[in-house]
Amino acid sequence: MKGVLNYIGSVDVSPESCYLHHELLNLMLVLMSTQLCSGPSPEPKDVHPFIDAAMLQDSSIVASVVQKLLLNFVRRPQIPSNGSHPVFSDDGGPGVLQRVGSAAANFVLLPYYTFNYFVSASAEGTTSQLADNSLLVLLILIYYRKCISMNESIPTDGVYMSDSNTNVKDAPAFHENPYCKALNNAKDIQFDHADVEGNAQNGPVVSLSFASLFDALGTCLKDESSVLLLYSLVHGNCDFQEYVLVRTDLDTLLMPILEMLYNASRKTSNQIYMLLIILLILSQDSTFNASVHKLVLPSVPWYQERLMHQTSLGSLMVVVLIRTIKYNLSKLRDVYLHTNCLAILANMGPHAHRLSAYASQRLVSLFDMLSRKYAKLAELKNDKALKVTPDQMEADIISDDTSTELHIYTDFLRIVLEIINAILTYALPRNPEVVYAVLHRQEVFQPFKNHPRFNELLENIYTVCYFFVFRELNKVQHIIVFFLQILILIIFRLINLSVRYWISSTVEWTCNS
Q1: Which residues cross the membrane (predicted)?
Q2: Start-to-end CA span in the chain (Å)
């Protein structure tokens, strides 16, 4: 294992070494496939000798392997389609046996060359098996966790860690993963933090161009493994997260993510979760929320329901997230997926800037859809409360389930109201379309006006509505008064002309007489 990792980390990929790199990566995947025979959660009795040996390597080898695997993913080296295997004798010229062996190797590998040629041609050169295998090996290495057995003592020097999602007493303890640590400590080669902050890392550090990594992720994000790498970097590497947040071309990453969420029916719930968590992490930064609303997209070709020209990236995010909520409500019915989508919208709400008319309408229609679901659950709960059933225990269980679901939808409605209220409170002058959408559909809020959970939120929303309604009424009144004044002037003018005409006619008649 040390020899394999040392070669991968120290030898650059070239036309001469690409085949050996490819086979070594395949060998790594096979050797680490023992995890397929284990359960979904790591246990102390699991035996993975090869990947355990990889975890025991020196930090220099670990850093070089992580860096080279990332570089393979970024550079996407191609295996030559005309692959030849020249074998030379000691005097520099090919011997008879060497020529026969080379010809035999080329003949045996002919199907592989043909497949690689057509794959490369069909994907316009973007497909790279070396890059794909490098990414798979990297993900397996950084997400491996080895449990501590019962006869091992847990030291206090930070070598071990426990699962933070469970209680401390029952939480399993794991050995620290050096590859995960190396990825989390990776630095941008164009910006040395040690010179600025004075916090140089002890030992070798993974360094590469974050700009190239950002562009590579934007190109390959339609692949599930690339999404997992982006999540790993955004969640674990603070430097890369900061780099992403200060980029002005956020559409490079967000457009593929939004397109995958738009096609949520073709994705599994785990894939949708991963995409939403990435957006949730990024939306916690106010700079990100401000940037996505100021970035204008000329068109969105993959959005089929409506032509979207010159719309902001923030408006597109709102539309796609609401569409994901509606899909989840009809198909998956996953409460936590709802929560993640609404949390992203809540983070974006106070920073909304010129939200489009379509996005504003979708936001109000989301409240309408959830309110209708809430009304059905409330009616169902009342019907079951009045209905007499012989099995009282079963009736109580059904009633409890309905009450729980009703409480969940109450929380959802409150979050949507908080989103609308945040836009009206902090970004009212910049979002006239939201005001118009609320005014146009203000009847959907009426049934909840006296609800104790929504009272203070709806009070603020109705205050805004009344202000604009009264302002429009005042405008109408001013217009009516203006037209009345003009009408009175016209009437007086006509009376004046009539009187003058009558006087002149009378005088003329008198003179003639």
Answers
A1: 479-503
A2: 134
Q: Which two tokens stand for residue 334?
A: 């996953």
pLDDT for residue 190:
84
369/412 Cα distance (integer angstroms): 11
In sequence order, which residues have a C-beta less than 8 Å from that of residue 362 and are 6 or more positions away?
Answer: 318, 319, 322, 323
Query: How many Å apart are CA 4 and CA 18, to the nearest integer?
Result: 14
Host H or E run for residue 335: helix 335-348
- pTM of the full structure: 0.81
Count the Cβ atoms, other than its own, within 10 Å of residue 277.
15
- Predicted pLDDT at 139: 96
Unique residue bearing structure tokens 């991963």: 274
Is the confidence at residue 215, as pLDDT, over 60? Answer: yes
Q: Which of 299, 312, 324, 302 is nearest to 250 (CA)?
A: 312
26-53 per-residue burial string, b: 16 or more CB within 10 A, e: under 16: eebeebbeeeeeeeeebeeebebeebee
* CA atoms of 289 and 27, how far apart (whole Å): 44
Asked if 421 and 461 count as a contact pair (C-beta separation under 8 A), the reply is yes
Residue 345 Cα distances to 52, 67, 74, 440, angstroms: 42, 36, 32, 21
Residue-wise pLDDT tens digits, 149-158: 665 555 544 4
- Residues 6+ away with beta carbon under 8 Å from 284: 347
Q: How many residues does the chain have?
A: 513
